[in-house]
Amino acid sequence: MAENPHHVLEQAQLEVETGPVPEGGEDGKRTRFLSMQERKRATELLMAGHSVSSIAKVLERSIPTVSRVKKEVLKGKSWNEKRTKKRKSKFDNPDTINRVAEAWHQADGELTYDKIANMLGCSTSTAWAFVKQQGWKRPTAKKKKTASPALPQQ
């Protein structure tokens, strides 16, 4: 059942005048991201002409958060669009891959994850993930086996 848009605006106006009405999430906890309902409500209130600061008070969110919603609305982005921006990774840079690959093959098994991390300017765990993503395997170490001395028989 769809809500009456006039009712939503009247309720929002009342909340702006009297203060926010606390709303709990599904589990009563608030996340750091706006929910789809909060985003929709902020968009509706922006379209109705309410100020960013009054909407922030109604939603109990910061002014910059609501301001970002306004910026997206002005760009023509719908309130229900998912985030599509992919995070950039050092793993995707072909120059970085070639530089580490060359060092990997020249090192003959002597290149450690710490050295790779220094080359990439990242943590050791990120360097390990980089090597794993590339599918590189360390050459098997040829350790000399020392024969254990024979125990004297009694």
From TrEMBL:
Residues 31-69 form the Transposase IS30-like HTH domain. Residues 1-32, 134-154 are annotated as: Disordered. Transmembrane segments: none annotated. Pfam families: HTH_38 (PF13936). InterPro entries: Homeodomain-like_sf, IS30-like_HTH. This is Transposase IS30-like HTH domain-containing protein.
